[in-house]
Amino acid sequence: MAGRQRQVGAGSVVGTGIGLALLTVLTLTGCTPTTAADPTARPFSGTSTPTATADAATAGPTSAAPTPRPTSTITPVPGVDDDAGALPDTCTGLITAGRWDDAFASAPLNDPGVVGDPVEVPKDALTPVLQPDGKSLYCVWRDPRADTTFLSIRVAVVDSTTAYPHLQSALQGYDCSLDGYGYRCQKVSQNAQYPVTDGDTYFTRGDVGIHVQQSNVSTSGLLDDVVAHVF
User: Fold this and answer.
1) How far apart are CA 92 and CA 157, in angstroms?
2) Which 8-state DSSP code applies to residue 39?
3) CA–CA separation, 34 and 80 (whole Å)
4) b/e for 112-151, b at 16 or more Cβ within 10 A?
5) Which of 44, 27, 18, 30 is nearest to 194 (CA)?
6) Hey, which residues does 199 pair with through a beta bridge?
7) Residue 2 CB contacts under 8 Å (≥ 6 apart), including other chains
8) CA-to-CA distance for 31 and 178, rounded, in angstroms?
9) pLDDT digits (tens, 9 = 90+) for 125-164
């Protein structure tokens, strides 16, 4: 497909106009620190804490305390050392239903022609810090006929003692910041083959890591939406 731009429904390859639009909207959901003066700034909703559950066979007057997940041994950083996340069971559980249909969610999800069968998850900056027995989701919205237009989200349980410092050193050339809820890094670049803009965003908070990749897709508030469904 190299060298051709093919129209594929709503996910068509377009010129640099939408690329510039993506550059604008990505900065709203990527690394720009949120402040009270920023009209897009808002707390992530749905923050929760683990609750104790009783064993039906040994239930007594009080519930047994849950086994705590690993916590960071580095100097605590607000947001980064918060372990209250829980991964959804499905990719559609990561985003608000209907909100992203016009942007990317109407494209096929994890089509075998795109992700393989079984699904092959590409290595990224989260790979070295994944918990070996931790849950993960890999979701790709892409028409297999499209040359470049796609969006992917990877959410996985990571080692909270190493994820934050690892991303600090591994993501060279990214704009990174602590925003009070976690550590996010983003890079926006011109696609090497087509006149469209690519975005690459990482986020870590406690033992949850999120990686969003997109090409020729404009989103505003996507990372906040995903975080709200995880925390």
Assistant:
1) 18
2) T
3) 15
4) eebbeeeeebeebbbeebbbeeeeebbbbbbbeebbbbbb
5) 18
6) 188, 214
7) 193
8) 8
9) 999 999 988 899 999 999 999 999 999 999 999 998 899 9
Instruction: Read off the tokens for 206.
Output: 């406690």
Note the pLDDT of residue 75. Answer: 52
Q: Which pTM does this prediction carry?
A: 0.67
pLDDT average, residue stretch 193-217: 96
**Exposure of 135 in the CB half-sphere (CA atoms within 13 A):** 10
* DSSP label of 194: S
* Sign of the dihedral defined by the CA atoms of residues 24, 25, 29, 34, in that order: positive
Which tens digits make up the pLDDT trace of 37-58?
332 233 333 333 333 333 333 3
Helix (H) or strand (E) holding 28: helix 16-29
Q: How sure is the predictor about 36, in pLDDT bands with cuts at 50, 70 and 90? A: very low
- CA angle 210/214/219 to nearest 5° reads 90
Q: In the structure encoding, which two tokens stand for residue 71, read together?
A: 């916590």
Least Cα distance to 216 among 156, 152, 132 occurs for 152
H or E segment to which residue 224 belongs: helix 222-230
Tell me which residue of 188, 140, 186, 139 sits closest to 167, measured CA to CA: 186
Element (H, E) at 185: strand 183-190
What proportion of the chain, given as a percentage, has pLDDT over 90? 57
Average pLDDT rounded to a whole number, residues 98-120: 96
Do 212 and 30 form a contact (C-beta atoms < 8 A)?
A: no
